[in-house]
Predict the structure.
Amino acid sequence: MKYAIPDGYVSCLSVYDTQKAISLLKRLFEDRLGALLNLQRVSAPLFVDEASGLNDNLNGYERPVSFDILRSPHRAEIVQSLAKWKRLALKRYGFYPGKGIVADMDAVRRDEDELDALHSVYVDQWDWEKVILPENRNLDYLKSTVMDIVTAICDTQETMQAIYPQLQALGRLSRRVSFITAQELEDLYPDFTPKERENAYLREHPTSFIIGIGAPLRSGKPHDGRAPDYDDWALNGDLLFWYEPLECAMEISSMGIRVDPRSLDEQLRASGCDERRKLPYHRMLLRGELPLTIGGGIGQSRVSMLLLGKAHIGEVQASIWDEETVRECEEKGVMLL
């Protein structure tokens, strides 16, 4: 599904004010998120050892960008997310239950199949992870964490609209979260694609969290792909907001309670990825040597779009675009950074 820039679109902020606003909202949101989830900001890697098993395989078909290093025998991969690295870092740093980390993550998704108003080959997100207790591995804890993230986003929006009154024309995001499982969503709209289901549901429930991403539904297909070795497919989900400028559901965060040894074993087998059991990270996890955690990624450019009312992600990040996108933006008066 390709998202088009609406006719007659005019940005609420100039390019100069947009840059100032992005810088401010990122500081505001990161501080608020850290306070609500008890997160400590840490430095994060841009690349990891290819043989470590730490890189995220996403849906399984995306090719990571890799390169050799002159003074090292290792081959490096630019991270696609920090899901596994964060969990290992929490063990190495000695964090206790209830405390976590948040880091800036920059990634390259070379196999992004759509370059449009919401999708870019460059990905920037707040990657966060927190140590939890065994009794926290349940849907109630997941939902509580989701509501804290929504609070951080909505609080940031209120502050931004107080500083930039012109943003008030965008309206306020709903703080009320509608929780629905991917199976319930499929049952509601059995003839729709997953993206069509999201759009139909979010029109009526403008802040929603879809639970259960990765496992096959009764139709035989998952709502969306999810690597088998970081989220527990029964305890994860996607946070979405209805985005009026593009008339679509906008995914802001993919997150969840992470696999424990049992769920990792089951998901590796179900996805045909048993070869990963030999990787250092996976051996540690299967032996129960890593802390139980919850975590996810929150798109920085997506949050910037959402709070600043932008019609194209290229207005809030610098990337490379195909000729069709460049031409459309020029015709609609949208300046790509």
In short: The two ends are 23 Å apart (CA to CA).
